[in-house]
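Two records follow; treat each independently.
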Amino acid sequence: MNNLDDVIYINQLLDIYGELLSHGQKEILSLYFRYNLSISEIANEKDISRSAVNDALKKGVKTLQSYENKMMCFAKSEAVNKLIKELSFDEKNKQIIDKFNQEYNKNGI
């Protein structure tokens, strides 16, 4: 998975569903996708084989994609963001959206 868009997508799925993965899978996926460590570097750091790292990556990505296919949290978030961008062209809507974003960031909604 060398495509930057794929890496960004997996990182977003990790943000949403990462806590649903096993500790080991989450850690390996984070090292690979967030910290850009190679399979060999992860294997050395975790003292496991490169094959085990590769298997954990494949299984972890598959699991994240399975969660997204079922729950669609990322897709729904993208749809909401698209609507917000469309609405923000109107100045009054932009003020409402800015107020919403301030509340969202303040309260962690």
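The next record belongs to a different protein.
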Amino acid sequence: MVWRVTIMEWETGVRFVDGKVRDQLQPGRHYVWPPRSQVHRVDRRPRWLVVTGQDVLTADGLSVRLSALARWRVVDAARYLTTTESAQADLHTAVQLAVRDAITAVSLDELVSARTGAFGGLAEDVRSATAGIGVEVDDVVIRDLMLPGELRLAMTQTLMAREAGRAALERARGEAAALRSLANTAKLVEDHPALLHLRTLEVAAQPGTKVILAAPGLDARDVDPG
């Protein structure tokens, strides 16, 4: 009896004969002779591995909870099936350990302010740990970072205090600038009294301004404005 096996474009077939790897089948139609021959299909398309819910201590001893993503693909189907009981489980463990090592090397402030590039070495660490099991790791990123409620509250209060301090500093700078301007004006008037008279005439010339002129020796309150 002959079986006809079709390997899809995104697959590699691994043919076993008497329990041993005979060859790898490329996309297309193939024929096998059971029961001595068996074919196992392996998907070669890139996929994401999600590592969730890790509790990790930072370098300053604070606990954070995070998740990570690893983008990977199978590059050697025979090794993927034969070198370990579960290559995907080994990959999951390698990502966990690499993320844990990276987080424990930085403080909480460095972790919160870090960008994705700050952990660019994660993928290389995972590649080293999974070498020889038939997979290629393209990228590893930290997706979510969750802080305990007390830490979130403390960081929020710190941020608010920092912004309030900046606002107070800006107000103080504005008041200082206004005082300097008044001091400069007073100095000019003291050095040049005619400037005060010119300013008075300028204000009097504005439309709608009523000017009361009093004769010498006459109190301006005694003058009838009408």
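Discussion point: The longest strand covers residues 63-74. How would you locate this feature using only the token line?
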